[in-house]
Input
Amino acid sequence: MPKRLNPLHVYRYLPQTNCGKCGEKSCMAFASRLIEREVPLELCSPLFEEKKYASKLKELQKILRPAVKEVVFGVPPNQIKIGGKDVVYRHEWTWRFQTPLMIDVHDEMSDEELNDRVKFVNDFAYIRIGKELKLDGIAVRCVSGIAEKFAKTVAKVMKLTQKPFILCSYDPEILEEALIVSKDRKPLIYAANKKNWKDVASLSVKYECPLVVSAPGNLEMLKSLSTSIKEHYNQDEIVLDPGTYTNSSIIDTISVFTALRYAAIDAGDLALGYPLLGVPAVVWLDKEKPPEEKAFTEAVLACSLMARYADLLILHSTDVWSILPSIVWRDCVYTDPRVPPSVKPGLYELGKPNENSPLLVTGNFALTYYLVKDDVEKAKTDAWLLVIDTEGTSVQSAVAGKKFTSDKIVELIEEYNLAEKVKHKSVILPGYAARLSGELEDMLKDWRVFVGPRDSAGIKKFLEKIWIPEIFGENKGEE
Ligand code: SF4
Output
């Protein structure tokens, strides 16, 4: 069951002075927002500044710790937060902190290849329902085995990007050389294993950077390492790497990730209550397969692991078709299922509309809005788009649920003074709202109400048919 806290329980450990420094009117209000994970504890400055609250602070940090600890690397404004999860199923409570996608580079790459790969990470952007989906950072691998060479590559990467990065080597000396040049950017250290864990844990404490604990295929070892590092080094900034296997072992990898998440959340196992790292890039170790097959397998593995609780992924392919499934799937998985994606209601200008431009109406479900916008743009026309607050539901559902009503349309027409803005006094309803046309005509009196197509793809043809310049005037945007 998800761990849900009671605000009264949290309130007990707050200073209870209602000073308002956190931005809330009372400590109880702050407690309520804390348990919903809407605000960080750090906003209560007295708790951190006044010694008398030290024991309360310690207790609060303990009780507010999510089942999967939140781990941060990189520096603001390019920080990455991972973990911070309290539930197995996202319908129980929003999954916070989407899985960052890191692309690997290594220290044997030419400057040109290094530049190209980092530039690709910097520039990659895919627009989906009005959101810009981006890659998150770089995993710098040491392949040469030479500390100085690795540190130089890390320094180059730091110059090429402000995005966070992971330092990948099992050799503590190599890691330290790179940490000396990069500690101010707070990289994630990969990795402590059964041989090097004391040295790598010491480095993570010395340079104040989080670390990955790696024990591929050995969950007992993974747990033992995280426990020892926490006990002996008081290091709680840990990420777990249980190993990523491909081919016929993909199912085992997915099972292990699932078991770890259940152990952390359902069984409350603190030693396993850390974010999980998956490395789909391992598919590229296979020398036999052609590159297209590896890029395909990598995409499948990345999506599968994201669905089964991976909090951080390292990828190799820079083929856009291989990255797209992961980046779009991530957006779907981390969209709050209780909050439909929506845009702000109001009047939008598509192109440069004037007093002769058509006035269309739609709902504020984001997908509907962007489809209508795209189809108006494809029709190569300028238009006014009045977006009604349908609470993020589609026009069809909103009409049935009385969220898309004539009252709301009239209200917005008046609010935006559209009788002055459009000379023609005509409004085009979406086809699914046809049943409102009579009522709307009655309410708007001297306006004409048209019923447009059900599918916005038909807007172009519809406008070509009805929007006659002799009647409505020239719809030419202002220059
Ligand atoms: S800053 Fe702390 S003490 Fe002040 S009101 Fe907020 S929670 Fe209470």
Notes: The longest strand covers residues 101-106. The chain has a mean pLDDT of 93. The CA atoms of residues 264 and 272 lie 5 Å apart.
